TrEMBL record:
GO molecular function: metal ion binding; oxidoreductase activity
Pathway annotation: Porphyrin-containing compound metabolism
Hydrolase among keywords: no
Pfam families (alphabetical): COX15-CtaA
Example of a GO biological process term: heme A biosynthetic process
Protein name as annotated: Heme A synthase
InterPro entries per the UniProt record, alphabetical: COX15/CtaA_fam (IPR003780), COX15/CtaA_HemeA_synthase (IPR050450)
Primary subcellular site in the record, as a coarse category: membrane
Keywords: Cell membrane, Disulfide bond, Heme biosynthesis, Iron, Membrane, Metal-binding, Oxidoreductase, Transmembrane, Transmembrane helix
GO cellular component: membrane
Compartments where found: Membrane
Amino acid sequence: MGKHLRWLSMGSAIGMGLVLFMGALVTKTESGEGCGTDWPLCNGKFVPAYTIESMIEYSHRFVSAAVGLLVLGAAIATFMKLRHSREAQLFAYSTLFFTILQAILGALAVVFPQSDAVMALHFGFSLVAFSASLLLVIGIRTGAYVPSGSRGASGKGQAGSEDVHAPVMTRNMIKLIWATTIYSYVVVYIGAFVRHTESVGGCLGWPLCNGQVVPSLEGATGIAFAHRVAAVLLLILIAYITYKSGSQGNASKLLRSSARWALLLTVLQIFSGASVVWTLASDWYLLTALIHVVLVSGLFGVLCYMSVLAWRSYKKG
């Protein structure tokens, strides 16, 4: 597999992660209007006046454009080097498609003010692009796109390759993983909606919400509480997957390892969400909010990888 493809795919994944991070920074610092209603220029200038808001917003645009070129290069390299792999091409082209889509949505949000519900989708599309780029990198690094008959005669890594190409899963596990991954996207969307509606202060205190187990479900409180309940249910689903994958002796090693990572990231994500509430009125709020975004992005990426393993198992069966 070509070195150019490896570097381009890795650069795309890292770049999309940076785009996600900077997008969250724009939202949290309320820098979305730092360039006014101009796009791609900033307040009518190629080099904007130095204000924190304009520099944050314009830097986000610049990085997004640079990463877009990397994503395009990775898609072309994938077409050239991995024509035999529909899965690799799916991830490369999906990354390109959702990168363009989120860029268009971001530009429209600058020129034409969008609703909070639509702006939450902006983060959601960026997350899908990041996850697709991550899956391409993982597939390349694990040898999943190397045809089984093309492995070296020494057989090095053969067991691992077979596990990647055809992981062992039950049909119930496959369906559960797919359902959990789809549901996790819903949880992420609700979280993005919390950010864009500035509802994070709707539930003060943790684990109770405004000192109550079930608060009044109106306005910001209802939105924030819905996100908490959704996150707890996601934790239960992932914990169950982790338990089932560990209790089945013939389960894929990759599945067991991925499930444990997903569980760890879910727990960390929940506590980082709690830290966002605890630091709401302090100087640490921005840091904890960004950590929360990083963790949930990693969690969704792991769940997407588990879904890919489930798909390979489904095709084998």
